Amino acid sequence: MAEILALIDYGAGNLHSVANALKAAGAEGVRITADPDVVRAADRIVLPGVGSFKSCAAGLRAIPGLIEAMAERVHVGAAPFLGICVGMQLLATRGVEHGITDGLDWIGGEVRPIEVTDPAIKIPHMGWNDVVVRPHAPLIEDGEAYFLHSYHFVPDDGHHVAAMTDHGGGIVAAVARDTIVGVQFHPEKSQSFGLELLGRFLDWRP
Question: What residues act catalytically?
Fold first, then answer.
């Protein structure tokens, strides 16, 4: 029987691109959903995100019971979880885009503007860039991925940094804790590198 993968629909993600990438990586039971009951029954959860931290957090909180269902399935049920782009940033304690907004606080830290000292370095950070893995990081491997963001996740605990990239300075490319992984880049736009990552997520038994 195919696993159920809950792809969270809260009005803030390029859902069909992510769903197609997951299917290309081998997923069979992808459910695009905002239903807490589906989330509680899911074997794996993917939280995408496109837009501002503030608007994405508001979209997630606007759906009754969704955050609670995600937390129950991940923290109690130990379901593997993947956050993508702003879906990764929402794991933080707070974001400061358009004012201070509470995140999920699943991985302590803050989402801040990317600061560069060289005017030749453009914001947003857009395009292909190296991903350099920290030792013992789950799922992530060294390679090149596609990024598009102006804010970055600064974790409180460096042990939660799974991979780094460089854009006028070091930027966290991935975070990890327990059964939770978040990536700042877009696997669905990262060609074979991204599909291989999604394939490892589908096979992950943390």
Answer: 85, 186, 188
